[in-house]
Amino acid sequence: MAAPAPTLLVDTYSVFFRAYHALPAMNTASGEPTSALYGFSTVLLKELRERRPTKLAFAVDAPQRTFRHERYTEYKGRRDAVPSPLVVQLGRLPELLAAFEVPVFCAPGYEADDVLATLAERLRAEGRPTLILSGDRDLLQLAHGGVEVLFIGGRGQKATLYDAARVQERFAVPPTALADWIALVGDDSDNLPGVPGVGPRTASRWVQQFGSVRALLEHLDQVEPPRLRAELAARRDQLLLNAELTPLRTDVPLGEGPLSAPLSRAALERLRALFEELEFKSLLPRVDALATALSSA
């Protein structure tokens, strides 16, 4: 018996930025850059075709600072400036998302990751299988209890589907303990420094033994190897801050509307028109195939 089709949740900017860096420059005949828009659309159409999700929703980051920035001013402080061609395409992205005619969630003060965590928690509570599409390791925290994460790797790498067992195999800790693991090894993309000399294997062993960063710091006399006890003590405040910031929030206010919506034939017609405008000729048959599948469902 086939597994029920999931609700697909998209970590929009993560997939969009990955698409930009994975493809060479593309432009319309008039010179409008389109590589990120094309790559994002290609990835999404592929998952819509292969996974046949019952419903779909997008999460995007708000332009405002989040509660993590307020808590730690250096949060994400090392990110490079967005290239001009990508800025132009970001201006077009809302139009592309609107063409799908499904919910697009954005919560000021929170990251898209927190929005996705909240959506996943609510869908999990309803017993609805969920698939999250992202290239952000933080979201692997959510890969349990009917929620899977399709992790998009860098250029040339295949996507990896994570459930709880796959997270355990990869990190030697369960998804629910991954935030503490990240707190120990650090996260360059978020500008959260780890502990010098502490790599993935050591972090996994400590999380297995102590359960959390706070418990580890409360039992420094039991930490092995002993030479790292001083490093941990010296970085106590930063580690506690990391452990506070890395868990994803599941209490983001999302309003009273639906959490997701099915892809309609009208949306596919709207999407097709936009692809024609953007000169995505190779994607038009894929949209038509989805429309045919929708009609025969």
Compact summary:
The protein is 46% helix and 8% strand. It is of the alpha/beta class.
H-E order: EHHEHHEHEEEHHHHHHHH
Head-to-tail CA distance between termini: 18 Å
Q: How large a portion of the residues is in β-strands, by DSSP E?
A: 5-15%
- Using the 3D structure, state the CATH architecture of the largest domain: 3-Layer(aba) Sandwich
Per DSSP E runs of 2 or more residues, the count of β-strands stands at 6
For the biggest β-sheet, the strand order reads: 3-2-1-4-5-6
Q: What do we call the CATH homologous superfamily of the largest domain? A: 5'-nuclease
By CATH, the topology of the largest domain is: Rossmann fold
CATH C-level class of the largest domain is Alpha Beta
Structural class: alpha/beta
Count of folded domains: 2
Mean pLDDT: 94
Helix content: 40-55%
Describe the largest sheet: 6 strands, mixed
Q: What would you report as the Rg, rounded to the nearest angstrom?
A: 21 Å
Primary descriptors:
single chain, alpha/beta, Rossmann fold, 297 residues, 13 helices, 6 strands
Please tell me about this protein's structure:
The protein has 13 helices and six strands. With 297 residues, the protein is α/β, with parallel strands linked by helices. Helix 7 packs across helix 8 and helix 12 runs antiparallel to helix 13. A six-stranded mixed β-sheet has the order 3-2-1-4-5-6. The longest helix has 17 residues. It has two domains: 202 residues, 3-Layer(aba) Sandwich (Rossmann fold), CATH 3.40.50; 71 residues, 5' to 3' exonuclease, C-terminal subdomain (DNA polymerase, domain 1), CATH 1.10.150.20. The two termini are 18 Å apart. The protein is globular, with a radius of gyration of 21 Å. The relative contact order is 0.16. Strand 5 and strand 6 form a beta hairpin.
